[in-house]
Design brief:
Elements: E1 2-6, H1 9-26, E2 31-34, H2 41-53, E3 62-65, E4 67-69, H3 80-92, E5 99-100, H4 114-130, E6 136-139, E7 161-164, H5 167-173, E8 187-190, H6 193-197, E9 201-206, H7 212-220, E10 238-243
Parallel strand pairs: 1-10, 2-3, 2-6, 3-5, 6-9, 9-10
Antiparallel strand pairs: 4-8, 7-8
Bound molecules: fructose -6-phosphate (F6R).
Fructose -6-phosphate binds next to loops.
Catalytic activity: alpha-D-glucosamine 6-phosphate + H2O = beta-D-fructose 6-phosphate + NH4(+)
Function: Catalyzes the reversible isomerization-deamination of glucosamine 6-phosphate (GlcN6P) to form fructose 6-phosphate (Fru6P) and ammonium ion.
Active site: 67, 144, 146, 151
Length: 251
């Protein structure tokens, strides 16, 4: 795993933007793996600025998001469908028809709708495969070491599937739901660690001291399902871009 320590989120964003802009110039229909949350926002901003400044044609760029809450309608402002469209599709000017979020086919279907939910994960993995796989997957990391919504204990070989959200993650994400944990969905659909590991390049971003322990486990701990992000150690092309605070526990 390559570890790059940066001054701030903007510097990390520049590194991501240069990498992805170069990719799109070589492969106009590049497949981007997208994440929500705070960590990738500066990277999306930097990429959008570069696309504009250099007049890069993104009309054929495709995207697959990591995860989605279950039980929220797609139109809910905090659904990952809405979030990805607001933070990535619109600022970059991507074709929305080419950008997919795992819950799109479910559209707020109730958890009891087992039939709809049963095939959604495998269908999503098949769609990624049919697109030729993900070229660059951007990742954030949870304070508990999750990537996507693969919480501690998740199989390192997992595909896209429905999961229960960990209590800690619901606490962490309450800030998007009026600081009221009761409004945070209890379930999600997420790319598995096995799905994520198939991407050709992984770029994990983490900032702030709250991520220091998870980063230490990810980079210097043993590979273990207790820290799902530690699977990155087995990936042939993984780049971890972090600030000094997130790096503070590294040796
Ligand atoms: C988001 C996702 C999550 C976040 C993680 C960190 O699609 O899959 O794993 O990346 O929870 O969130 P932030 O960046 O908000 O600290």
């Amino acid at each position: 795993t390559e570890v790059i320590i940066v001054k701030n989120e903007d510097e990390a964003g520049e590194i991501y933007a240069n990498c992805v802009a170069g990719l799109i110039k070589n492969k106009p229909n590049a497949v981007l793996g997208l994440a929500t949350g705070s960590s990738p926002l500066a990277a999306y901003r930097a990429l959008a600025a570069k696309v504009k400044a250099e007049h890069i044609d993104v009309s054929e760029v495709r995207g697959f998001a990591l995860d989605e809450y279950l039980g929220l309608p797609l139109t809910h402002p905090e659904s990952y469908h809405s979030t990805i469209h607001r933070t990535v599709v619109e600022p970059l000017g991507l074709n929305p028809d080419l950008v997919h979020v795992p819950g799109d086919v479910l559209d707020g279907a109730p958890l009891e709708d087992g039939e709809k939910i049963e095939h959604a994960g495998a269908d999503y993995d098949a769609a990624i495969e049919a697109a030729g796989g993900i070229d660059v997957q951007i990742l954030g990391i949870g304070t508990d070491g999750h990537v996507g919504f693969n919480e501690p204990g998740s199989s390192l070989a997992s595909g896209t599937r429905v999961k229960t959200l960990a209590e800690q993650t619901r606490i962490d994400n309450a800030r998007f739901f009026d600081n009221d944990i009761n409004q945070v969905p209890t379930h999600c659909i997420t790319q598995g660690i096995g799905t994520i590991m198939k991407a050709r390049h992984l770029v994990l971003l983490a900032f702030g001291s709250g991520k220091a322990e998870a980063i230490e486990e990810t980079v210097e701990g043993g590979v273990s399902a207790f820290c799902p992000a530690s699977a990155l150690q087995m990936h042939p092309h993984a780049t971890v871009i972090i600030d000094e605070e997130a790096a503070s526990r590294l040796r």
